[in-house]
């Protein structure tokens, strides 16, 4: 590869740092919260901290470092970084139950105020499965079927916005489907199952669409490989979410009445 | 316990059937993906003649089959936990679900929506006939099992309709 060409296409160190910084802050705050709250309450489960650490790790390697550099010139690498940022990291972070940790760490008046925010109408809208799916999958359609994908490589600001959006929408989507943290506006299992299937279908259809219609500036062979990474990678992460959703149903529907009669 | 089991079976007769159907759809889609897409590589990931509606139908069924496999198996475990599993009826559902999906895939998705063909060879018609005949056979086996288990009572026992 031409060296000048390579430098021209690499994202600068500043945007990479800007994107990585919130995640670094998030891991520091999480560990601090674990230490502080463990003094007063029973120990916070280790596995939750492990989930958080891996979630942060996958988020950071997708926005900064060698993979992020390659993602700029190689569509297959881009897809890997987006799978990590938009699906795997959000799932791991959701499994770490950050809201529960925050509520048990803060003092009561402050925790009350936060739970009030969580119960507010904007929170109700954003954590609705349909809205979250639309933000998540709709955002991806916008990115790959319009000029946004090529524009993102020319503007640092757009690059940062798109990557934050991919992460946040992925996180909202995950927490709207599986309830690890307390969520005030719960929806039924069947409702979430139906919305999830439609969202997963939207993801699969987009993958095959990219296979046939590469985004502007992406060579056909890279688009084909990237599309298959998106399709099968998405499937793998989604079966974990389906499994957790079904497991929660299985627990919730356990035969309690039967036991009471016996 | 035997009496209890019969009672539970009749209450959960429908759930046995649905668990089987969901798992059947998921299983056949899984076989389609692993055997025909990945191992044999007969099916194409994307066929240039695919219609838009074919792409949508394929995406929806693919997503549904993932959910159906896992959901169907959780329902199966739930039935076992309740002592309400009725294997014959469950298998009836599996064959029916698998057969209906294979027939839909083999006729509407392959032929009408042209998402992809079974194999890219000259005498494709032979593959199509075998594919769809297998599908119809599975439907017949499934329906037979379902009809046989239609009555909630086990054979030989007095019929009672309290749960009908």
Give the key terms.
heterodimer, A: 262 residues, mainly alpha, disordered N terminus, B: 164 residues, 5 helices, 72% helix, elongated, disordered C terminus
Structural class of chain B: mainly alpha
Rounded mean pLDDT of chain B is: 82
| Helix content bin of chain B | over 70%
The total tally of domains of chain B equals: 1
Radius of gyration of chain B: 19 Å
Order of helices and strands of chain A: HHHHHHHHHHHHHH
- Measured by DSSP, the beta-strand proportion of chain B falls in under 5%
Coarse morphology of chain B: elongated
Query: Ends of chain B: how far apart?
Result: 21 Å
Organism (chain B): Oceanobacillus indicireducens
Keywords (chain B): Membrane, Transmembrane, Transmembrane helix
InterPro entries (chain B): DUF2243_membrane
Protein name (chain B): Membrane protein
Structural features, described:
The complex is a heterodimer of chains A (262) and B (164). With 262 residues, chain A is mostly helical. Chain A has one domain (3-251). Helix content of chain A is 81%, strand content 0%. Chain A has 14 helices and no strands. Chain A has helices at 3-9, 13-40, 46-63, 66-71, 75-95, 98-105, 108-118, 121-126, 129-145, 148-152, 156-177, 189-212, 220-252, 256-261. In chain A, α5 (75-95) packs parallel to α13 (220-252). Chain A is globular, with a radius of gyration of 20 Å. In chain B, α2 (13-39) packs across α3 (52-81) and α4 runs antiparallel to α5 (124-148). Chain B is built from five helices and no strands. Helix content of chain B is 72%, strand content 0%. Residues 155-164 of chain B have low confidence and may be disordered. Chain B has one domain (2-148). Chain B is mostly helical. The relative contact order of chain B is 0.18. Chains A and B meet through α12 and α13 of A and α3 of B.
């Amino acid at each position: 590869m031409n060296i000048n060409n390579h430098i021209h296409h690499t994202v600068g160190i500043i945007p990479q740092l800007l994107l990585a910084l919130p995640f670094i802050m998030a891991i520091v705050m999480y560990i601090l919260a674990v230490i502080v709250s463990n003094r007063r309450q029973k120990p916070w489960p280790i596995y939750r901290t492990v989930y958080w650490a891996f979630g942060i790790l996958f988020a950071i390697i997708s926005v900064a470092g060698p993979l992020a550099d390659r993602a700029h010139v190689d569509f297959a690498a881009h897809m890997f970084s987006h799978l990590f940022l938009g699906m795997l990291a959000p799932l791991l972070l959701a499994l770490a139950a950050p809201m529960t940790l925050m509520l048990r760490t803060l003092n009561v008046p402050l925790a009350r105020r936060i739970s009030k925010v969580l119960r507010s109408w904007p929170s109700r809208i954003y954590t609705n499965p349909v809205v979250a799916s639309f933000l998540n999958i709709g955002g991806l359609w916008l990115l790959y079927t319009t000029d946004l994908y090529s524009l993102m490589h020319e503007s640092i600001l757009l690059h940062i916005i798109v990557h934050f959006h991919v992460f946040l929408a992925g996180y909202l989507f995950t927490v709207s489907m599986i309830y690890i943290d307390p969520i005030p506006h719960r929806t039924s299992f069947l409702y979430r199952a139906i919305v999830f299937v439609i969202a997963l279908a939207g993801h699969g259809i987009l993958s095959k669409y990219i296979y046939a219609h590469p985004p502007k500036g992406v060579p056909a062979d890279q688009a084909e490989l990237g599309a298959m990474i998106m399709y099968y990678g998405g499937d793998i992460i989604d079966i974990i979410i389906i499994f957790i959703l079904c497991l929660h149903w299985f627990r919730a529907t356990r035969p309690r009445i039967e036991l009471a009669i016996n | 316990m035997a009496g209890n089991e019969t009672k539970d079976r009749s209450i959960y007769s429908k759930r046995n059937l649905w668990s089987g159907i969901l798992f059947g759809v998921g299983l056949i889609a899984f076989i389609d993906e692993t055997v025909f897409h990945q191992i044999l590589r007969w099916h194409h990931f994307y066929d240039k003649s695919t219609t838009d509606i074919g792409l949508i139908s394929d995406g929806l069924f693919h997503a549904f089959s993932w959910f159906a496999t896992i959901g169907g198996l959780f329902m199966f475990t739930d039935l076992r936990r309740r002592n309400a599993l009725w294997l014959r009826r469950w298998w009836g559902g599996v064959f029916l679900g698998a057969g209906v999906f294979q027939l839909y895939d083999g006729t509407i998705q392959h032929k009408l929506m042209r998402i992809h063909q079974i194999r890219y060879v000259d005498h494709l018609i032979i593959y199509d006939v075998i594919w769809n005949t297998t599908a119809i056979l599975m439907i017949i086996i499934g329906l037979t099992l379902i009809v046989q288990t239609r009555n909630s009572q086990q054979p030989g026992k007095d019929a009672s309709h309290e749960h009908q």
